[in-house]
Every structure is written in structure tokens, then in C-alpha cells.
Amino acid sequence: METSAPVVEVNGAPVTPADLELLAFSNYGHYTSMQVRQHAVRGLDLHLSRLDENARILFGQTPDPGRVRDCLRHAVGTGRACSVQVTLFSRALRCLAHGSAVEPDIMVAVSPPDEPQTSALRVRCADYERETPQVKHLATYGLLREVRAARTAGFDDALFVDRTGLVSEGSTWNVCFHDGHQWVWPNAPALRGVTMQLLQTAMREAGVPVASEPVLATDLGKFTAAFATNSVTAARPLTAMDALTLKRDDTLLSMLHALYDTVPWQPL
């Protein structure tokens, strides 16, 4: 199957107008995004675990993991390089709203591959907390509002700070810092990104000094470098956080990419 044109399937069949209408009028669901290369994904097991855990929260029932992989393989076909988003939603919204547990429907959208971003980011700290932050859900109004506000103010993106002043996550990425001695991942309610988890594991296995601890927005000046990470770009430098300017550290950037390169690809 060629991946030059987008492919969207629900439960292994072509998406219907009714499905698109349902998703247009309801944002109740969750998803995970991944990059596929030669029919394999880094952290595929973590993506599948995310779908399982999030489905328990939103639908009270998890999809059969074999069924998820079958839908994934069917939509991807034999394409060697593509971007994939797996979304779980429900055609049985009325049953769900009445408290019933329902098995979610599986939408797989396949599009051309995304390439890693290399440019630095200048971010604006935003007082914002995603609802149910541990879930990668479809309710993105507040998130996009903060990104737009940041760009209107002359920044590239937004870095979220919770009501207690703790840095949590970026708009569509996790953040990690370096204090000159060790890597620091913020310990605050946030989505545990797959790439973040893979990097944390790679750091521990390589014996790299790493910690997970609360990071106050007022203490950002103690760090020498900061990086954004998500499923498209393993590491992207942050060179400004509000008025704070950080020097781009290509040595640390290369270290993160080298650690990520040790992560094995898992076949679909």
C-alpha cells in the first residue's frame, strides 16, 4: 500500500461519513501517534499499553490488543515509512453516557512520514493544566489556545505550568533539562510520552545521571540546557523560556539523539 495519500480506517474498514460526523461533534476519545519505518515502531509496546490504560479510564473496557495490531497492520499495509495515529472512540456514545462499559472503536489514520525538527524552540510559560493529564485525549481546545497565545506573543510554543507553579509538559511534547551534572525530568502531573519513557530507560541503561523531580517555573534559571521531545523529534533544543535565554548545547543534543538511536525498532 502506498503511503503518499492518507488512509483512514475504522475497525479495519474504510472510514464512513457517519464516523467523521461523530468525531466532529464529539471529542470523547484518545489516541497515540507513532512513526513507522520498515514496518516497525520504536516503543510499540508502550503505544499499545497507552491505548489499553487510557481505554480503561475513558470506556471502562479495553480493546483486544490483537485486534488493535490487526487494524494497525491493515491500514499501514506494506508501506515502509509513514506517520500513524491510532484513535479510540465509541459509536455507542449513548450507552457510554449512561455509565455502560463499551469496547472502543479503532480508527487508524496513515499519512506521509514526519521528519524530525532541528530548529530551536522559544517557548512561553503558560498557566495551564490539561484535563486528565495522564490521558492523551482528543480535547485539545485549551492546549491550542495556549499555543496560539504564545505565537501571538512572538514565541514558538507553550510550556505548561500548573497551579502550584510546577513545570509539567509542553503542548505536544515533554521537556527535560540539564543542570550541568544530570538530566532532570519534571515530576508533575503530565502525559508520559512514549519517547520520554524510551529516553529515560536508555539513560538508566547507559548509566547516565538522571533524576525525576519537581521543577518550579521560578527555578528554570538553574538549568544550563532544555529540550523538547516527542514521537516525531527525539530531542529539540529550547533556547528561550519567557525572558530566560539558554545557549544551544549541541553536545547534549547529540547525546540525546545517540541514546534514542539505541532504542530497538519493534515490528508491527
Description of the structure:
By secondary structure, the chain is α+β, with helices and mostly antiparallel strands. The protein folds into two domains: 105 residues, 2-Layer Sandwich (D-amino Acid Aminotransferase, Chain A, domain 1), CATH 3.30.470.10; 143 residues, D-amino Acid Aminotransferase, Chain A, domain 2 (Alpha-Beta Barrel). It contains seven helices and 16 strands. Strands 7, 8, 9, 10, 11, 12, 13, 14 and 15 form a nine-stranded mixed β-sheet that branches. The chain has a five-stranded antiparallel β-sheet with strand order 2-1-6-5-3, with helices on one face. It has a two-stranded antiparallel ribbon with strand order 4-16. The longest helix has 16 residues. 37% of the residues are buried. The mean pLDDT is 95.
